[in-house]
Amino acid sequence: MQSFSLGAGLAALAFWGFIASVVVAGIWYDIRKREAQHETVRRLVESGQPIDDKLMDRLLSLDSGNRDRLDRAFKITGMIMLPAAVGLAIFGLVLGMQYPDTKLPLLGVSILVGCIGLGFLVAAKIARRWYLADSNSAFDQI
């Protein structure tokens, strides 16, 4: 059994600390952006300017007016992950020639990344159907 040194523990702690700081920073950014939106609405109301419904919806919407479609984002993510899985498999085979113990774990990782990529492509197809169904709804025909 291997014993891990203090350096390995500190490296693992630094990695997970970085992941935690990225998550916290993303949450903090969203909170500040939302507060700025509310401040804008408050100032408009205090100034007595007329606010139409379209502007109010845009100011208070969760997506800040972005009209990104999830099906496209999922498809792009899947199209990035599938070649990455192939690259990991090739890397595992090449590295496995020098260090045979590394071949099987890297092939397993490449299969995992490939399955996630396929999952994103399937999610893109499902989300695309939702967007098509929403655009063909009776509400849009009015």
Describe the structure concisely.
By secondary structure, this protein is mainly α. Helices cover 79% and strands 0% of the residues.
**In total, how many beta strands?**
0
**CA-to-CA gap between the ends?**
70 Å
Q: Name the average pLDDT.
A: 85
Radius of gyration: 24 Å
Query: Count of helical segments?
Result: 4
Strand proportion, as a percent range, falls in under 5%
How helix-rich are the residues, as a percent range?
over 70%
Q: Overview of this structure, please?
A:
The chain is flat and about 75 Å long. The chain starts with 5 loop residues before the first helix and ends in a 7-residue tail after the last helix. It has helices at about 5-45, 55-60, 70-100, 105-135. The protein is mainly alpha-helical. Helix 3 packs antiparallel against helix 4.
What is the secondary structure topology, with strand pairs?
Blueprint: H1 6-47, H2 53-60, H3 70-98, H4 103-135
Helix pairs in contact: 3-4
